[in-house]
């Protein structure tokens, strides 16, 4: 196998428990987005437009839902004889086999395979954020610096920073290539609004050797794992003084919670969305099927909305995202909501500020959601006619880990 110049590892194995019912039966990277896409389409499209052809997807939770979408990687030009797409599931048969327990643990378990192909540079990306980024540009900046690792950073609302790895920079924190002087993983009291956006470029020999040392120091890495990159690996590299930043100043949103997922979908119903998904220079590619155009009855209207292929609208849709195959019957109303593939909203039903998963049927005259919070309906459920599901509720109401 030829030595890759750049190898991208897409971390796609997390359970995504904060997405609640949306990830009960699918991997988080396979969650539909903006009517026609899946979350993993964004990093894979970034690889395509960055001209990076060696991409490994590390998966674990609900892999069938993701494999069905990835297929052979053709939409992202990854169906190649040499290089291309490689899917890495958990495995047995070596001392590092078994299920991973965090992103750093997954990197450690695949360290020998990475060493075997000898990439010059490795890029690690997550698959649960919506953004556009030229990874090749980050790699160029990384190689021009003396960094062992380059961390892509972005600013978020200060009150939301505790969800991320919070970064402090030596000197001017707007300068690309500036040294990262402090890193705190999901701190209770963030010191800044500057965070890592889960894109890392690194020198494999140094980082993989450090992982080996951390594993040797662990009490029992096979039982406890090495956790996430932010638990021990990134703080150790920052302490060595070998981490630099690359600032991402365009749209980036982590969609790891229901509220963030809903809000990001709402961002894309604007007349000028934060990312032009059809930009000829940077089209977001997806694994598409053959579907008929959307159909509107004389009584059907949709304003400020995204309407997917083969949707059938006879009711009223306002500021919403309708995925392929959604049906909104005459007299039904859908407002400020995200409906995933195959949802049927029967006549007279009213859906407001809700996320509705695959193939749900909302009965005649039912009322779902309201003004406070985001209601979430799990896949393949039926809401009885006339039922009332309160704002912010989960339906069905059983607990999901």
TrEMBL record:
One GO MF term attached to the UniProt entry: glucose-1-phosphate adenylyltransferase activity
Record carries keyword Transferase: yes
Domain named Glucose-1-phosphate adenylyltransferase/Bifunctional protein GlmU-like C-terminal hexapeptide: residues: 299-371
GO annotation (BP), single: glycogen biosynthetic process
SUPFAM superfamilies assigned to the protein according to its UniProt record, in alphabetical order: Nucleotide-diphospho-sugar transferases (SSF53448), Trimeric LpxA-like enzymes (SSF51161)
InterPro entries documented for this protein: ADP-Glc_PPase, ADP_Glu_pyroP_CS, GlmU/GlgC-like_hexapep, NTP_transferase_dom, Nucleotide-diphossugar_trans, Trimer_LpxA-like_sf
Nucleotidyl transferase domain: residues covered: 9-267
Record keywords: ATP-binding, Carbohydrate metabolism, Glycogen biosynthesis, Glycogen metabolism, Nucleotide-binding, Nucleotidyltransferase, Transferase
Family assignment from sequence similarity: Belongs to the bacterial/plant glucose-1-phosphate adenylyltransferase family.
Protein name: Glucose-1-phosphate adenylyltransferase
Source organism of this protein record: Jatrophihabitans endophyticus
């Amino acid at each position: 196998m030829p030595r890759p110049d750049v190898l991208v590892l897409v971390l796609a194995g997390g359970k995504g428990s904060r997405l609640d019912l949306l990830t009960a039966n699918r991997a988080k990277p396979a969650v539909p987005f903006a009517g026609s896409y899946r979350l993993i389409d964004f990093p894979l499209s970034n690889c395509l437009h960055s001209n990076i052809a060696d991409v490994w997807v590390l998966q674990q939770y609900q892999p069938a839902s993701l494999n069905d979408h990835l297929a052979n990687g053709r939409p992202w030009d990854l169906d190649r004889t040499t290089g291309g797409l490689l899917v890495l599931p958990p495995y047995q048969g070596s001392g590092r086999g078994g299920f991973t327990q965090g992103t750093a643990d997954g990197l450690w378990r695949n360290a020998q395979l990475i060493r075997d192909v000898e990439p010059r540079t490795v890029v690690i990306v997550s698959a649960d954020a919506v953004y556009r980024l030229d990874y090749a540009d980050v790699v160029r900046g990384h190689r021009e610096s003396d960094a062992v690792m380059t961390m892509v950073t972005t600013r978020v609302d200060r009150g939301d920073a505790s969800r991320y790895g919070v970064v402090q920079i030596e000197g001017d924190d707007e300068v690309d290539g500036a040294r990262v002087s402090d890193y705190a993983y999901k701190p209770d009291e963030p010191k800044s609004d500057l965070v890592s956006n889960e894109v890392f470029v690194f020198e494999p020999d140094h980082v993989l050797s450090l992982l080996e040392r951390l594993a040797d120091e662990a009490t029992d890495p096979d039982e406890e794992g090495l956790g996430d990159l932010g638990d021990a690996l990134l703080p150790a590299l920052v302490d060595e003084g070998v981490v630099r930043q690359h600032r991402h100043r365009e749209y980036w949103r982590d969609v790891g919670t229901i509220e963030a997922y809903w809000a990001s979908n709402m961002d894309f119903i604007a007349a000028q969305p934060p990312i032009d998904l059809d930009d000829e220079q940077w089209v977001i590619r997806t694994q598409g099927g053959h579907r008929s155009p959307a159909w509107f009855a004389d009584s059907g209207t949709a304003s400020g909305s995204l309407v997917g292929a083969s949707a059938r609208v006879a009711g009223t849709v306002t500021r919403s995202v309708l995925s392929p195959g959604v049906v909104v019957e005459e007299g039904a109303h859908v407002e400020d909501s995200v409906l995933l593939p195959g949802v049927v909203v029967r006549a007279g039903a009213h859906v407001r500020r809700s996320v509705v998963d695959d193939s749900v049927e909302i009965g005649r005259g039912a009322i779902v959601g309201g003004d406070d919070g985001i209601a979430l309906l799990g896949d393949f459920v039926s809401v009885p006619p006339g039922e009332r599901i309160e704002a912010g509720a989960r339906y069905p109401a059983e607990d999901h880990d």
